[in-house]
Amino acid sequence: MEASVATHTLYGPFSQILTMADLPDAGPIADEALQVLENAGVLVSGGKIIRVDDYIRLSQEAEQYDYAVEPFEEPMVLLPGLIDAHTHICFAGSRANDYAMRVAGKSYLEIARSGGGILDSVRKTREATVIELVELLKQRCDRHLREGVTTCEVKSGYGLSVDDELKMLEAIQLVNKHHPLELVPTCLAAHMRPPEFTDSKAYLRTVLDELLPAIKEKNLASRVDIFIEDTAFTEKESVEYLLEAKKAGFDLTVHADQFSTGGSRVAAEVGALSADHLEASSDAEIDLLRNAGVVATVLPGASLGLGMHYASARKMLDGGLCLAIATDWNPGSAPMGDLLMQAALLGAAEKLTTAETLAAITTRAARALNLPDKGQLAKGFAADMIAFPTADYKEILYFQGKLKPHKVWKNGQEV
Ligand code: NIG
Ligand code: FE
């Protein structure tokens, strides 16, 4: 059989395939609920999964097609490609200086108030050309892909002017066209009020009137985010801004309850897809998010980077929330950017089951981004797959991020 004419590819046999299919949309997940197929394979055509099944049965079924085989000698566990549902990896410069100040005792908000923090990255990102941003973003995408991330949300938010925000989103779009890591762009022009404006309302007005229509026209993003906090935007400003963005056709997400509560309330009120951070959230916020069907995306990388406590992920699951875990990879609060390691560490600290942690970086992360064909290995889903060199899926979290994928496929293509 000629590989060149093959319409189908059969991958396997894998010691185990964790499909991440048929799990509850929200709330706790017992490990017994995980579908673990032994000695199984995946049949793929046109970048989509046709079937996941016992390898022998699947190879018999594949006989009816022209098919190529991707066989494996060593034991291997297959998982859906990881999804990082919250990052800021389009930026220039380093904030190692901020980090040194923080570990020496200054707080994140103190550093921000004294002109460091986000505005420092804004200065450097404004100075960078699109080409420079593309190059930096590509390097981070390469690393993510190697570590098993096949879909990644990326925010703007270090431009904070119409032109500089467009420049960031254009860089993201360029990389998305040419890099196998699939990017989901989000406009975070409402990250902070830029120094050129003395009034937040006036700045948000400019974003609504000038930036969002340009983003729509150039098809640069379909999601809008805002940072709700003392040093950023108030609840009232945020609700007004988000509702107008929603009317203009954007999906919503919110930086919520990182240091103080209020953001969850906004996320629930405007019907955001997700509320992200949630380190300061407690029972009242969990109730609000559950009742409004908002996904809780927690960001252990920001807790690690800032040396602060994790979000109460266990409580959120027990309170019935859909929990996603993302890196928040950014130059300031979360420079590490290792999704699997961070999910494993959070899971250990918060007592999450293996199923809950893995769902939070696959199928439930797909829900946070509203990507119905990602995050599971099942018929009709994208063939985004990662294979770990082990015969036991439990070793993946056990090694806390040090066991790296041996192979990564995006839409069935090895990358
Ligand atoms: O999610 N909280 C606000 N924004 C980012 C931090 C960005 C930065 O510090 O550059 C966050 O942690
Ligand atoms: Fe963030």
Topology:
Layout: E1 8-18, E2 36-45, E3 48-54, H1 55-62, E4 67-70, E5 77-80, E6 82-84, H2 96-103, H3 108-113, H4 118-127, H5 130-146, E7 149-155, H6 162-178, E8 182-190, H7 200-217, E9 223-227, H8 235-247, E10 251-256, H9 263-270, E11 274-277, H10 283-292, E12 295-298, H11 300-306, H12 313-318, E13 323-325, H13 339-350, H14 354-360, H15 363-368, E14 385-388, H16 394-398, E15 407-410, E16 413-414
Parallel strand pairs: 1-4, 1-5, 6-7, 7-8, 8-9, 9-10, 10-11, 11-12, 12-13
Antiparallel strand pairs: 1-2, 2-3, 5-14, 14-15, 15-16
Helix pairs in contact: 5-6, 6-7, 7-8, 8-9, 9-10, 13-14
N-(iminomethyl)-L-glutamic acid binds at residues 88, 117-118, 121, 227, 255, 258, 302, 328, 330-334.
